[in-house]
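Write out this protein's structure.
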Amino acid sequence: MVSRHDHSSASPPPDTGFWAIDKLVLGYLTFTTICILGWWSRVEYAGLLLLAHVLGMGLALFEIKCPNRTSWIFRNWYALPYVASCYKEMALLVPAVRGTDADQWLADLDFRIWGAHPTVWLERVHTPALTEFLQIVYTLFVPAVLLIPFLIWRKHRPGEFQYYAFLIALGYLASYIGYLIVPARGPRFLLNHLQHIPLQGLWLFHAMQSTLDRLESAHYDCFPSGHTELTILAWWSSRAISKPLFWIYFTYTPLIIFATVYLRYHYTVDVMAGIILAALLLVSTPALYRVMSKGALRIGGY
């Protein structure tokens, strides 16, 4: 007979501790809030940005400290819109904090390495069909990265999902710090006068390019190449899904790396930096995640 005081089979208490992803996102938001306050007079829409930070951090703290029926979904998925919003605000923070760009330095470094500007040299292999194909590959970047967490989530593996969410969020946020340290817009702006022919596709190229331009062209988001870094992280993490998917990502990864330079979005040194950063994260994140996860329980009955 089980005593009414025996709580061994009771549900675990709600978790109000900070998960690793909470510490990462809130820590980054604290950092960028300090940047807004420190460069207040130079940050466009500083008041609105500060308000967005306060509201975003307040909502996250409420869901963490006051568990409710929405907390499980929120705490697993909120990093997605938060990290996306952090990317958008970099278009305002980088010019205010830095006030200059490193495009010429990166282009000169590329030239020293190759003896030519890679985006100009690649004109000799340009064809409309190849341009169309590589633009599709490049445009599929975000869906390719987000497909992995959706598939892990569908397999009901919360532990793996939370680790992947942390890894990807860390990858994005680390690249944003890189944009602040080495702000650059890319060779399609700096070296446009050296290009002999414009990129031409077949059917969808201009529509895809103009859509991405509306989303990204105002950003100083070249160094490191987030497309390279995050695709490598997604490829490595696809092992958790299936071997066929791993080989699909194994094929996709070099294609998108090549596309970043062929389509004139990145210098090759950006790509090299993205590869190095991805490798460092793959090696160091497991230990970092264990340290940052101390003192937290999962919620939602898992």
